Amino acid sequence: MIQSSRAKKIVAIDDEPEIGWLITRILEEEGYQALVADNGREGLELIRRESPDVVLLDLRLPEMDGLEVLRRVREFDKDQMVIILSAFESFEVAVQAMKLGSYDFLTKPINVEEMKITLKNALNTRQLEQEVRVLKQQVAQTREAAQLVGDCQAMRDLARQIELAARHGVSTLILGESGTGKELIARAVHYQSGRAQQPFVSIDCSTIPENLVESELFGYERGAFTGAGERKPGRLEMAGGGTLFLDEIGNMPPAMQMKLLRVIQERTIVRLGGKVPIHIDLRLIAATNQDLRQAIALGKFREDLYYRINEFPLQVPPLRDRGDDILTLAKYFLDKFNTEFNKEVREISPEAQARLLAYAWPGNVRELQGAIKRALILAGDAIGIEHLPPEITGVTREMPLLFHTRPDEVRPIKEVSREVVAQVEREMIQRALDRSGGNKIKTARWLGIDYKTLFNKLRQYGLEGFGKTEGTTLPAGEGRPRPESGQLAVGEICL
Could you tell me whether strands 268-269 and 278-279 are parallel, antiparallel, or unpaired per DSSP bridges? Predict the structure, then answer.
């Protein structure tokens, strides 16, 4: 793992210029970057702006005392390491400071050696806490990745393929629609491999501006370009020993495709502004929702790079093809968000489960996660149909449930169908009239029906008093269905 060469940043807040000068000199001699403020408000702003590794905070400050500064720091950074300085030994004040989460309490006049030791201990503690957080995050990500593998045959097959890809360390290309969980699959491959204890570094090629992709991947030396104030390792270097995940690789600019191919072949990189090649050892996993073979045919993706990254392809099935996995994942998200929002929604009603299974899920697992989160927030003891998003239930704010039946009631299908069709027709006509400003000629054209049919339906649904035709000249062809469409154009009418 590449270690940052950045000097540890220490903020000292003290209103005595001599003390500030002394602390600065001691810190710089120890190799730290020292930043000093002489009052509480400036110090608080400095902490917000610089996110230091440790804060040395005097208690007696003008305008805002040290305890108030500490309280406000805790509002935006509960993990900030703070060491209190005070010329007055007060047990009560020390207790208050400790309750607010200060790391230690030093008295003035400053004992230089004691301060050095306390700083080193604080930095070591901060490093350990960061490592614990990373490990917890990795464990959580591993569990979440495991949850992606469901019980359907396609996911069982994918689980076996993930195990093989992880074991053999080959370059892997993950294929699937947006929202199917391609990054979770990549993490599953990483955490089942021999590189599991090394970094997993991700970069989304579709979100980084083209002029920044190279610096993100390769890093840069100080002074490589305007604004490059210090050396920065790139994602390739940061992934050393571990895995680099290139999401949506089909969006990578052609020039960068050539440079990435060279990296794969030579296993070396050169930072922007640098001259010395840096050897890298990493495992490459890429993902895309595009047809890369078609992109190759169109000259948008390099064929040689395609074969390099596609040594072992993994196809992630869309959620609509995963059967009862929809309910398994829904229950997983229910448990997850119960914990996150401190709620106790026990179940998803049978009717809501039926709607979840019937829905096509164009947004895949990501859409299901969002739907369950929304439903859980709205629900009481159980998630019902009324808590699901309108696109899943087929209900909009303007359109109530299409028909209602008692649990013990059975009605003829034709009768129910007539009610549903009538309600949908009335709703679409009303929307078209609203959109056209009441122009019945435009409404008829948009709905793909002739003017006489529209007139009859307006009378049938009690809408004949709505709209206008006066002042409108019917051009040739107006009022007749367009040959290419016999139905409402959703993009034109639906609000």
Answer: antiparallel
- Residue 13 binned pLDDT confidence (cut-offs 50, 70, 90): very high
CA 92/CA 71 separation, integer angstroms: 16
Of 35, 39, 85, 37, nearest to 58 by C-alpha is: 85
**Tokens at residue 97, please?**
């400071």
Closest to 234 in 3D by CA, of 245, 246, 218: 218
Q: Which residues pair with 220 in a beta bridge?
A: 232, 272
- Taking the C-alpha atoms of residue 102 and residue 125, their distance in angstroms, rounded to an integer, is 13
How long a stretch of residues is the chain? 495
What amino acid occupies position 107? T
Over the Cα atoms of the chain, what is R_g? 32
At 285, the amino acid letter reads I
Per-residue pLDDT tens for 222-233?
888 888 878 888
**Which residues make Cβ contacts (< 8 Å) with residue 53, sequence separation at least 6?**
8, 9, 10, 81, 123, 126
Please, are residues 252 and 17 in contact by the beta-carbon 8 Å criterion? Answer: no
Burial state string for 204-243 with b = 16 or more CB within 10 A and e = fewer than 16 = ebeebeeeebbbbbbbbbeebeeebeebbbbbbbbbbebb
Q: What is the span of the domain harbouring residue 421?
A: 413-493
Is there a single domain that holds both residue 375 and residue 432?
no
**Cross-strand bridge partners of residue 57:** 13, 84
Is the same domain home to 283 and 383?
A: no
* Cα–Cα distance, 371 to 367 (Å, whole number): 6
CA distance 231 to 270: 12
Higher pLDDT, 232 or 423: 232
Its pTM stands at: 0.55
If asked whether residues 296 and 155 sit together in one domain, one would say yes
Instruction: Indicate the pLDDT class of residue 453, thresholds 50, 70 and 90.
Output: confident
User: Alpha-carbon distance 123 to 110, whole Å?
Assistant: 19
- Backbone phi, psi, residue 81, to 5°: -80, 120
Residue 404 lies in a domain: no
Q: Residue 213 — φ and ψ, nearest 5°?
A: -60, -45
Residues 164 and 259 in one domain: yes
Place of tokens 């998803």: 348
Clarify whether residues 172 and 46 are in a common domain.
Answer: no
Residue 172, phi-psi category: left (phi > 0), alpha (psi -120 to 50), beta (remainder): beta
